[in-house]
Amino acid sequence: SAVISQKPSRDICQRGTSLTIQCQVDSQVTMMFWYRQQPGQSLTLIATANQGSEATYESGFVIDKFPISRPNLTFSTLTVSNMSPEDSSIYLCSGGLRGGELFFGEGSRLTVL
Amino acid sequence: GQQLNQSPQSMFIQEGEDVSMNCTSSSIFNTWLWYKQDPGEGPVLLIALYKAGELTSNGRLTAQFGITRKDSFLNISASIPSDVGIYFCAGQKTSYDKVIFGPGTSLSVIP
């Protein structure tokens, strides 16, 4: 198993600003993903964080809005850029080794005013 | 795009009852997974299924990988209050592919 730590755990942000969320895994994982979970909803995949290269984004998510870095096997960041109230959500980092057996952080709860 | 459907959307049961929920897809998945999410937490993996027809248990939980590879079932026996939460099914096409989540089933257990 792996323990995933995210920070910040929550933040209140002003419209138009950007926020970077950090994700640290306590052991090397093959895959890292970023998900968004809007209130009362399921998890929507934003992108696959690729070590040392550009992330792979899902339909509806673009690099300019959600730049992602993954400099090594245990660390990744997600930036939510030029935020609007519609970006208020929980952002979850996950990592995994085999198949779909993912481990999740507790999430970062963003509120945009 | 790929989509998973879960039913029921929500359940209210008495403590001690058994629970069944299912997940279907129009696409074939080679891995089916069941996660549980408690309020304020990230999802936690309950059971992973890798083979069509596979039946796997984890304590009071039992899950099955459908023969068609397009569905999966989760059963919880003798429910207890701590079973309350949202149960998500998830699917993966290949071992290094993205993991897609269903909309979830919300379970409430009445003591």
Outline:
Chain A has no helices and 11 strands. Chain A has strands at residues 4-7, 10-13, 19-25, 31-37, 43-49, 56-57, 68-72, 75-80, 89-96, 102-104, 108-112.
The rough form of chain B would be described as: globular
What percent of the residues of chain B sit in helical stretches (DSSP H or I)? under 10%
Instruction: Please give the radius of gyration of chain A in angstroms.
Output: 13 Å
What structural class results from the helix and strand content of chain B?
A: mainly beta
The helical percent of chain A reads under 10%
Helix-strand pattern of chain B: EEEEEEEEEEE
Structural class category of chain A: mainly beta
Overall pLDDT score of chain B: 94
Per the principal axes of the C-alpha atoms, what is the gross shape of chain A? globular
Alpha carbon gap, first and last residue of chain B: 40 Å
Q: How large, in whole angstroms, is the Cα Rg of chain B? A: 13 Å
Largest sheet of chain A: 7 strands, mixed
Determine the number of helices of chain A (DSSP H or I, runs of at least 4 residues).
Answer: 0
Overview of the molecule:
The complex is a heterodimer of chains A (113) and B (111). Chain A is mostly beta strands and 113 residues long. Chain A contains no helices and 11 strands. The radius of gyration of chain A is 13 Å and the shape is globular. In chain B, a hairpin with a 2-residue loop joins strand 6 (55-58) and strand 7. Chain B is an all-beta fold. The interface between A and B is medium-sized, with 26 and 24 residues.
